[in-house]
Amino acid sequence: MQIEITEFPLDQVLQEVSRNFRMIAEQHGLRLIMRATDVWVRSDRTMLARILNNLVSNALRYTSKGGVLVVARRRCDGTVRLDVWDTGSGIAPEHQARVFDEFYRVECHGTNERDTGARRGLGLGLATVQRLAELLDTQVVLKSHPGRGSVFSFHLPEIPAQVVFDTPAEETPMDVTGMRVLVI
Ligand code: ATP
Ligand code: MG
Questions:
Q1: Where found (predicted)?
Q2: Helix (H) / strand (E) containing 144
Q3: Considering the entire predicted model, what is its pTM?
Q4: Helix, strand or coil for residue 74?
């Protein structure tokens, strides 16, 4: 898979993910909230969207009441931390390390009615997520409380507050045309 690292506002990706799942969340009476500060990241946009689509899809699928919250926070070490929280079934400690394995599924999810029958997944979503995260030089970490919910977290490099040129700087050394100032 070809990696294409660019710089982009995280907001745009979160909005896209939100659009993909707004209807599903509404249909199931779940809240879906995205919260990002005005922050730009350096990453592969398509892969990041895939990671978030998978995590939000799981979060909604294994949650029967409450909802899902995606938060992006700038940290002082130059990274942005993304957390995908849910108030769902949670994952028991003995399964937590294994849910990232290919084809691994937790068979019993208690009260979640949507995790039944024909809609059963293959157990590939989180394996894909972790593989994509590795390609982006990061790792997805899970914390979960059975019966209360889960949070899947990872970090991305942030673009520090700076002046960014739309065209290569060496081509326009004295020209401010096309220059964009990031206020963050
Ligand atoms: P697929 O994603 O291939 O359609 P899947 O959702 O079963 O199928 P994964 O996304 O890899 O597969 O997840 C593996 C297992 O981890 C799931 O079957 C489920 O038991 C558990 N799981 C994943 N995300 C959550 C979550 N947010 N809350 C509770 N359990 C989860
Ligand atoms: Mg899945």
A1: Membrane
A2: strand 141-145
A3: 0.86
A4: strand
